[in-house]
Write a structure and sequence with these properties.
By secondary structure, the chain is mostly helical. The protein has one domain (1-68). It is built from one helix and no strands. It has one helix spanning 2-67. The mean pLDDT is 88.
Length: 68
């Protein structure tokens, strides 16, 4: 009886640990996905800024040509 009770308690503890571990893994995966999305957004913003700078550079060149 004592041994069965001990095994039951151990099984309960292990199942709680396992479910807790699974929750932590899910949270880690969500955090990684969020970080990847943020990195992609930052890259898109940088590309847009580069395109705007190129357009501004072209406009300045056109303005200089008109002055000539």
């Amino acid at each position: 009886l004592y041994r069965r009770d001990t095994l039951l308690k151990a099984w309960c503890i292990l199942s709680r640990l396992k479910s807790h571990q699974e929750e932590e893994e899910e949270e880690e995966e969500e955090e990684e996905e969020e970080e990847e999305e943020e990195e992609e957004e930052e890259e898109e913003e940088e590309e847009e800024e580069e395109e705007e700078e190129e357009e501004e550079g072209e406009e300045e060149e056109e303005g200089e040509e008109e002055e000539d």
